[in-house]
Fold these 2 entries.
Entry 1:
Amino acid sequence: MLNYAEKPFDDSESLGVLNPYVREWFTKNFGKLTPPQKYAFKLICENKSLLVTAPTGSGKTLSAFLSIISRLFDYSLQGKLKDKVYCIYVSPLRALNNDIYKNLTRPLEEVYSLIMKEKGVDILKSNIRQVTIGVRTGDTSQQERHRQLVRPPNILVTTPESLAIMINSEKFVENLKSAEFVIIDEIHELANNKRGVHLALSVERLKEIIGHRMVMIGMGATLYPLDEAAKYLVGYSGEQLNDCTIVDASWSKKLDIKAMSPVKDMIYTKEEEIEDALYKEMDSIIKKGKTTLIFTNTRSGTERVVFNLKKRFGYGEGIAAHHGSLSRESRLEVEELLKKGALKCVVSSTSLELGMDIGAVDNVLQLGSPKSVTRAIQRIGRAGHSFESVAKGEMIVLNRDDLVECTIMLDAALKHHLDAFLTPKNALDVLAQHIVGMSLTKKWNTDEAYALVRNTYPYHTLSKDDFTALLNYLAGNYVGLESRRVYGKIWYDEKEGVFGRRGKLARVIYMLNLGTIPDEVAIDVHSGNKRIGSIEEEFLMQLKVGDVFTLGGKLYRFDHASGMNCYVTEAQTSAPTIPPWFSEQLPLSFELANNIGEFRKEFAGRLGAYIKNGKFRSPRTARIPKEIDDYLGTLPIDDNAKHAIFGYFLEQLLFCGAVPTNKQILVEATKDIESDTNYLIFHALYGRRVNDALARAFAIVLSDMLSTDIGMMVGDNGFVFSTEDEKLDMNDKLFDAVIAEIDATGIAQMLRRNIRRTEIMKRRFRQVAARSFMILRNYKGYKITVRRQQVNSQLLLKAAEEIDPNFPVIKETYREILNEVMDLPNAQRVLDELRNKEIKHKHITTPLPSPFSHSMITFGHADVVMMNERRTYLQKLHRMVMKKIRGADETDK
Amino acid sequence: MRLTSDVELLEGLPVAYIRSLDMLVVSDLHLGYEGAMANKGTFIPKVNLRHILETLGNALNMTKAKKIMITGDIKNTFSDVITDELNELFDLADFLKKHNVETALVKTKHDNFVERYSERMRLKVYKDQAELGNYLFFHGDTEPEIGDKTSMMIMGHEHPTIGITGNSGKRERLRCFLYGEFNRVPLLVMPAMGYFSSGVEVNAIPASELLSPMFKRTEIDSMRAIAVGYGSTVDFGKVAELRKV
């Protein structure tokens, strides 16, 4: 059962449960308890499983550890502390692990010296031992590992992958049998992905191996929904959810946040002026504070900002970049400097978003939209020395869609509306690894094993059929009897319902190939017979035939890909359909998208009251009416931003009389102002993952109905279909017919068929096949490069499809694409609401694209620092829109 | 599809039939491919042999031929005969025995050690090349010696395919025969029969990247590509033309 801790305990009550020496140390070093500590000390002492959510700098780590340290010193004073592991701490980051180690070493030493001072020689007589701590990750040396085997640390700090190896190490697992506590830190970074799913199975297996309950403690700074995280943390016993107490201290930190525009006019201000204003603004913020942390959304953006700040304002060594493409050494160096307070400013893409203590940052600046409330809070939460100080953050925005997005995002942050995370359910590839792992330790009854797996939250709804299909696959039952010796990873007797180890090789395979993070790959790009550069595989996966993208300053059309090569031809158009940072760009969350849709509805409603006969009626023309101004004043924005939002909505309303909302999809038939391209623009604000699914389904049905080829662009705010010659028209009847057609086949079925022959299918299949041990990266001394894996995986997919289209590895690939790359459940929800008219649709034809569609059709250029052509194009569009609005005005007169 | 008065390309199959010799010609079976891959850690479901037996069964039904010529690469590994290959070779042999067919093979470096089993397999093994009637069979990894009365040369080795981009923008790769001339003697290049031997797109890569030395001395662009797939066999015209689409 889950329950929420309602009231904090008194400080004296909390401290009263601690070991006296630990209590003395704590009171000496800290004046009082922080909010999470007021709950956690006592509850953990009572052996309650706990989910703690509290902001960075709120003493969260100690809130989890102090009671454990206290317990271990109790053991020590009783002379019964052994060379055993009592507490396992797991975090997703090695850097964070090293940090925890450093931060705990001090209290352990100081508490022990308090004891030494008082007990003197009794320490030896009574066998009062120091409580030990050790780190074990992929970086840990062989020597250190050996030492840990002989003398294991009482507190073991590790990663999910290392834990998975330890539970399968016959000797080391003995040391884990005394574990009483498991701490999972940064739980939001695990519970939402396959690494976390892997960890959940490891923990469940550990429980089974040691045969007793452990206290589970989960921690995270930004977590929603808390119930989901708690279920992930504690899992089930049979059908019964295990107990967990939820401590929500997440809003104890105050936020001072604002979205702002450096210029009044976001469309006609010259690019140089915008840049000047942008960097001046940044400079003044940096100068005011001691240390400023700047987040850009891309690695290239990070470099560009550092370059400009240095060039313009002469920041020398006081400013540094920190992102994933930099070497580990240079990142560590920057982190150290940051902790020492030696830097005036650090610019980062995403890499400093979580984890280790980065010292005193007093201001966070975000350039462009971070696309999710959770991420915004995580980033801004890096500011403020302690939980008591205010986290100060600014978002600088350079286009009007981003502005609306960021405004609503910050508003949601202030109102404590976080985005929901979702745990992947029933991922067959991760389970395949663990079944192999399980088979190594003993002979299993399949029902017993199935029950164990179902005790974890990610697999609680796993069907027996899927489980059995996996056993059959792992036993190599898809090949003839004589080959199973080689193909089989486990031994499985279906009749008896038992499985276990097959051969000596299985252990090596498991140890060398486990893990869930796919290898990164660079794809060579060829034009004609020339190699022109390379792109990331993630980027390639997003490309459809005919997509135009930039590489080395030129535009190329994607033709086809084969293995690790991508073939393109130089494109004659002026705009790319996929921006270069596309694979780095995170999709807008569904929740936030809905919030924006609600705002659109509310604001357009208020504004609509001032429009009569297609004209804006205000007491004083072109000024914001007071009521509207007051309403905008409730949002976290500056004056420039206020005007920009007001102008944006007004233009849309005057131009076509309709603003799309979360409950009304606007379908706009229009054409390009510079070419013969016809557009059908679906203003559907649901985020890219949902729109990806919706757009594909609509395109399949429409191109069938109209028997024409349709080009497609998908973004967060909607999707755009384009055709060259044929005009695309949409109306109520046709729209409903499309929905009916999608329903008839089922969107899942439709999408499955649609993605079957795509790049993303081939490549995700490779990753799933590697995770499922169907392609081994490391086998009998062979190390197979990703390049080879890719070649093989295409054959593999073809052959596997032929023997069984529901082969577990194929099934998992579809599941992953539909639920993680796309968002099928929410796409289905939108379709359902369209069918029962909760979401309406409205159809308009416009002589040129309406203001709200401008960023969608020029989407390829939508970077923080805009490209010139895009600005020119946008200005031209805008001028035409304004001419039309004024023209109507004039004839009216 | 009739290629000459004596040679027919069986509809939809990567198989040629020579009437005067009552003989099927196939090439590049690569038996044991999946087993070899599994030994390196990629566990491909076994479909190659099944496909080959199906195809041969169809071809034998269509023609009632009494002989089969394999122009090289019956199996996959150079240096040895691995267990999987042996099993599959024997399965193939049993199948052919059942159909009462005589089998001949032009041996290549993939076919090392097959002699050891040739008796058990009732396999007639030719080294480098075989001349039967007016036909010269060879693998294609080296140039053959052409006799005076040779009316057609037949080889494998290249695994030719053509790449075609369809209306929907998706590119498809189809196996094909190549038919043209070498030193003014008609030359037929066989498509690979192996399920996984997808080969290269001859209309996409430059001639210099082709495997066989034969194409150093003859213009592949002047050869015709006859594609096999979806149950039919279709002449797509000259490779030169296909490069343009």
Note: The longest strand of chain B covers residues 171-182.
Entry 2:
Amino acid sequence: MLISVEDITRTYVVGGETVHALRGVSFTLDKGQWVAIVGQSGSGKSTMMNVLGCLDTPSGGRYMLNGQDVSRMSDDQLAGVRNREIGFIFQTFQLLPRETALANVELPLVYRGLRPKERRERARAALDKVGLTPRIHHRPNELSGGQRQRVAIARALVAEPSLLLADEPTGNLDSATGEEIIRLFEQLHHAGHTIILVTHEPKLAARCPRAIRLSDGRIVDDGRGEAVAFGSRREAVG
Amino acid sequence: MSARVDLVEGGRIALFSLRANRLRTVLTTVGIGIGVATLLAIVGIIQGLNTSFDAQLANIGANNLFVSKWPWVIKGDWWEFRNRKDFTLEDVELVRAQSTYATAVAPMSGRSSDVAHGPEQVSNVRINGTTREYLTIGGLDVVQGRFLTDADNETIAAVAVLGADVAGSLFPGIDPLGRSVRIDGRPFRVVGVLGREGKLLDNNLDLQVLVPFKTFRALFGKGRSLTIAVSITRLEDLALAEDQLVGILRRARGTPPDAPEDFSINKPDQLASTYEQLTGALYGVATGIGLITLLVGGIGIMNIMLVSVRERTREIGVRRALGARKRTIVLQFLMEASAVSAFGGALGTAVGLAGAKIVSEISPLAAAVQPLTVAGGVGFAGMVGLLFGIWPAARAANLDPVEALRYE
């Protein structure tokens, strides 16, 4: 079991009012699984993604990632976990605009402390895996949206994390390019990567073997992607 | 991740960012640069002053004592000194006879006067009446002719030894020996010319004329204050010699045992300490100005670093998401801030050195900057950057990664 989430809660205090973003979420995820987390805006899926990505710590409950209790870690330890265990793929790509594709992909390895030569080799290999070898010296503004997202995916893969965490990865792409990226995810899934994909698009969730639906900070459905995405439940409105 | 990686990556990002914002970097640098340049130029000028003052002081001779009713540096009531009893030639003889440390003793009296030869005239020349022994005490060189002799003094001869500038002005291209000059309207025969002596503080030692002491008295009156110039055997004996002199002169002047001396024993290191007080104050003011400029420069750096942090909020979020620790982010911004400052420091050092050089070229001040001062300038500027970078760097590191990633 790669991920075990037990009764996770997350509350914020905004302007003196307590907001319950997560009200006790539990699920497990095995290595090699691909799960979509779906829900409308305000359902808590962004908070869930931040907690799963160790960018945010839960207010209560336990989060075990790859055998480590990350819900009780210090800021520095979490930085290490993010570096080793998690590959982020963001809706807005989040590439450093002034660095080349190669340098962007190298970044996680920099923070892992690898030597420049090894970093460069591994970054090249990762860019090759996503089909961007001819573009490694381009800066993000010289790349198309799809190419940028491929750079981001290469960056997520390069450190060989145990979990790929994608947040609306096709949200800023046209449908044809989005389809290419989904195919890439399918390939990664077949290659054995564990993927959590956060999305509000039922069509995208339906492509995943498993989907979890959040509503008002709770899990309201958990099952086959297609079933959850287009499920009969009233909440399941795309 | 090791500290080495933090440093290397921090430095790389810092340089990268400085290159990417060249204009901003240069402008930010200017503030710090001006501070360092100001400090260095002033320090350079003061160090130069010190060097030339030391050289001048050596001119007076460290093992000389000058006994007079006037102190060199007057503190307190001028009248009190004015009313002190004048020294006499008898006192000079007494010192010569009784002091066991004195190697040479000479009376000295002086005043300013015009000196002329034909139509040529030099104003404000220091006329000093003294004797043969002053040659040793003053460490003088006679480059032409001879110095004053005892016979000159006893016979009240109207002879003069000219300082280098006086000789040069009155006798351009002419041999002055044996020729006549008029001092205060009276004729004197030139018997010798002194070598170049330089300056002592504001006094041009080459703008003087030496005449026999008794001649001086006859010409300008006996009422003039007399200084007993004493040369001591060894520098180590200076304090002993001084004590002995005090004893001899108190007895000669009949000073009661419990009364303070009514004369002053002047020595070069008195000037030195007065000089140090003066330049010390100058140092203080200059350092204050420099520090304020550096403070302003530092605030400029802080400002620009805060802008930089804001601009790169998302970048910070990305780096944090990919595994950068707070420490790494802090280091990145600290290195950026200190790099800008050190760069400014280097620039300021160059300007400051050039300034000191120019000053020493166009003015009589010999500015000199010691290498340590230069290293200090650059290092200090870097420290200023480091100090003023702390707050922006801490702000950057304490950004919430989630918020930072969402920042537009």
Note: The interface with chain B takes residues 50, 53, 55-56, 75-76, 79-80, 82-84, 88, 90, 94-96, 98, 107-108, 110-113, 155, 159 of chain A (CB under 8 Å).
